[in-house]
Amino acid sequence: MYTEEPQNEHLEDENVQSSTTPEILKATSANEHEETKETILPETEETKPQMEKKGSCPPQGTLNKAITNGAILFMIWCVVWAFSGPEVLPNGSLFGLLVIFYCALIGGKLLEVIRLPSVPEIPPLLGMLLAGFAVRNVPFLSDITYISNELSSTLRNTALTIILVRAGLGLDPQALKNLKRVCLRLSMGPCLMEACSTAVISHFLMNFPWQWGFLLGFVVGAVSPAVVVPSMLHLQEKGYGIEKGIPTLLIAASSLDDILAITGFNACFSIVFSSGNISSNVLSSLRDVILGVLLGIVLGMFARHFPGSDQGKLEVKRAFLILSMCISAVLGSHRFGMNTAGGLCALVLSFTAGTGWSKEKVRVQKIIGTAWDIFQPLLFGLVGAEVSVLSLKSNAIGLSVGTMSLALLIRISFTFVLMSCAGFNFKEKIFIALSWMPKATVQAVLGPLALEKARMSAPHLESYSEDVMTVAFLAILITAPNGALIIGILGPKVLTRYDKSKVKMELSGLELH
Which residues lie within the region annotated Disordered (predicted)? Predict the structure, then answer.
């Protein structure tokens, strides 16, 4: 009797539990259904105002962004006016600088917006250059726009420093090691050949003295990373030519090409504007080269270890330190009359420091790229503003285009010959030779330097410097858009496309000699 009652009680408990379990499940499912309703309803209620805002009175999207950017630019003018006063009003240097900056910015954005569906993107720097040219030659804008030569020179030299820093940080030691032979041939051969051919052609066609001819040759002899690098990265992302490392080769060689052109220009610049004999000028140039390299190595080793990796905001501190040191070196060398030393110091400093940074190097490059985004409109706008239609000679444009075109044909042909023993097929050699023609950044920096120096210390040489400026302007205007179009159109047609997942990306396997 005692054993049966607990069993009955146990059965009753099981019945109670079994009967209550469905009710509990129903209750929980009902509660979950109510909770999901409660969670869904607020989300829909929150999204309703957002959907309604798109059609509301305050504009959204692109129009809102344009109005915001316009208000920011206007407030920059107001702040500068509050600090400087009449300098930011018409005929003031800061006013002219803001006009050129705004116009160049708008010109670059217009080229980004105006795009044909089947045509590759044209570099925005062309719009910036034309905007500065319009500011100089449109009557109303030219009357109210004035920029002092000292301010223009300082800004262009600062832009040159940023170019050198980006070139130094962009050099990949591993890529240079694996592609050293073909990379050196591509970076040095075409630049030297175009410089020499330009000197000969300008001597007989434009009546240039030999030293001015070589100076002009090194101005137009540099290829533009601002055009070549984005185009090569675009082809590399799609897998064109990556098996033989063609995009990597052109990206690495473009920086070395600019280094050689800037070094050669500085040497010719010292010879042209110095009163001593040629041997003393060559020795002083070698002295500047050695001094710049040594100082760059010392400062680069310092920037490699300071600030330490345990500090906060490491990439910001490194970017500020390397930019400040390089700008001080470039501008300080101009004050001491050693132009070659400052540029080489900035280049060696950034390369030496970058080799010691592992993952932070990319972040530093992004910060310095932001600085370039600010100085790029200023650089090309100022270069465009240096060219006046009224001051051009009647035959200056024809002779300039003829000199530049003949030298460019020699450069393309020589590049094709240099690539003949590098393991590339016929189509790839044609592509590399034509891709090695765009000119922009170095020409924008070096072109006005001779004109500025002649105005200050040698007025009798001003005619030659104006011709150098004209050739540099036309070189950018003609080769930058055409080079970008040739790379964008010809690359997918002549380069072999490979699947990145099946291609071994190590450069050590490349059969290039």
Answer: 1-60
